Amino acid sequence: MMEELESSNSTLTIDPMLDEIVREIDSDAARRDIESSIKWILVNCRGSGLIEVCQYFGYRFRWAWMKEYLEVALNGFRQDGDLRRVRAYEVMLEAFEDDWEDVDFFPSLQ
């Protein structure tokens, strides 16, 4: 999915895949899997694909664990002076707001 997003440079490409994943997140076990997957993505991936995937789930579910994880990481990047990652994490955290401007990029969130 991340490769597809990076190559197409469009959230419209992965929106159906993300929506399908959401339909599978009905059990606590699935939620734990998605939590560990998102944390893995945050640690191991770079690029806009990371941002869009996290924005999608952040807006859709407003998970407290995810917001807290992003905030802790953001504070670490600020201390390290990693401005690129600071901005990326600020953008991801914006998706937790009701008036998130980029929600229109994801048709399944409408």
TrEMBL record:
Protein name: Uncharacterized protein
Organism: Saccharopolyspora hirsuta
Superkingdom, taxonomy of origin: Bacteria
